[in-house]
Write a structure and sequence with these properties.
By secondary structure, the chain is of the alpha/beta class. Helix content is 31%, strand content 18%. It has one domain: Aldolase class I (TIM Barrel). The protein binds S-adenosylmethionine and iron/sulfur cluster. The site of S-adenosylmethionine has 21 residues, from strand 3 and helix 11.
Length: 325
């Protein structure tokens, strides 16, 4: 069993399969040129799988594949099958921008994928293009439909930004509701790689927008999930709010992150990481496990995105496209 230095059980592994992406979201990596390709020292699926097996044997029962854009990683379905064949009751999920789902949803489902989170920040083509850096909406909506058609579980994620998509919070909530999908609104997490001009919305401002039309009741968190659930009293529809600036969910944090280049990252906020790449390339599992133990021992107690602190200090240097959110 994996226990961190604060006594929290870690049973959730998030793997960022690539830093590359076909979008350039304002809150993530707006400045990276599209031709940018990171150093080709990605771990192979075989190397990643060595670590996955150790993690599963130590009690990890939930694995999320993310990125960058994970669907850019060729043969991702084969990696999913490797995990599925090793232990078919692992909760395997994926976070994607949805752009390539139209052509890959069926392969992913056949490979053993169960659930997807799809980012949807706007239902207006021009706004979606402004956020993602290119015209994406049509393909993303097609991707959502395809995922549903092949029977994948789908949740939606929206990051509301002041003056950009903040007037669409209710529209996107209603889009999700009409499709029977859960939506989670995510507070923008300030970081040095994002466009410095954008401004996120506070969780309570997001809720205020919804309260202009609906009555809502707070429900609570589901287990260790960072998402706090709310219910519309009008029809019972449930949605989530991820408010890292409050960081009260850190006390039940159950996750560890592995990047495409083999860095184990204990917390989304902090820059600290340790590499297991060399150990995996040398097939030295004992060494990888020892590094994992070290990283878990030093896992921070909580992030530092609190609203009180955020104005007065440097932003997090941790890039979302490396850690996968
Ligand atoms: N490319 C995929 C996508 O966009 O869904 C997966 C990787 S992305 C880094 C994972 C999630 O992090 C997405 O839901 C995205 O909206 C969110 N995200 C990225 N940067 C963020 C930020 N600065 N604040 C809050 N959420 C962010
Ligand atoms: Fe790409 Fe996802 Fe980052 Fe947007 S949030 S640039 S889709 S990795």
């Amino acid at each position: 069993m994996l226990i961190d230095g604060h006594g929290r059980r870690v049973d959730y592994l998030r793997i960022s399969l690539t830093e590359r992406c076909n979008f350039r979201c304002q809150y993530c990596m707006p400045e990276k040129p599209f031709s940018w390709v990171p150093k080709e020292n990605l771990l192979s699926f075989e190397e990643l799988f060595m670590f996955v097996k150790v993690a599963i044997n130590e009690g990890v029962n939930k694995i999320r594949l993310t990125g960058g854009e994970p669907l850019l990683r060729e043969d991702i379905d084969k990696f999913i099958t490797m995990i599925y064949d090793y232990k078919n009751d692992i909760d395997i999920s994926l976070t994607t921008n949805g752009y390539l789902l139209g052509e890959s949803a069926k392969r992913l489902k056949d490979a053993g994928l169960k659930r997807l989170n799809i980012s949807l920040d706007s239902l207006k083509s021009d706004v979606a293009a402004k956020i993602a850096g290119k015209d994406v909406l049509k393909k993303v909506l097609e991707g959502i439909n395809k995922a549903l058609e092949v029977g994948l579980g789908v949740k939606l994620n929206m990051v509301p930004l002041v003056g950009i998509n903040d007037e669409e919070i209710v529209d996107i909530l209603e889009y999700a509701m009409a499709k029977g999908l859960k939506i989670r609104f995510i507070e923008y997490m300030e970081n040095t790689h994002a466009n410095s001009e954008i401004q996120g919305m506070h969780g309570r401002e997001i809720l205020s927008k919804i309260k202009e039309k609906y009555h809502i009741r707070a429900l609570g968190r589901e287990g260790a999930s960072p998402s706090f659930n709310y219910k519309l009293l009008e029809n019972g529809y449930e949605f989530g709010l991820i408010d890292p600036h409050k960081h009260d969910f850190c006390e039940s944090c159950n996750r560890i992150r592995l990047t495409a280049e083999g860095h184990l990252i204990p917390c989304l906020y902090f820059d600290e990481a340790q590499s297991i790449a060399e150990a995996l390339r040398a097939k030295d599992i004992k060494k990888a496990v020892a590094i994992l133990a070290d990283v878990l021992r030093d896992k921070p107690k909580e992030n530092r995105w609190s609203h009180e602190e955020i104005a007065s200090r440097e932003h997090s240097k941790r890039a979302f496209y490396m850690t996968g959110g």
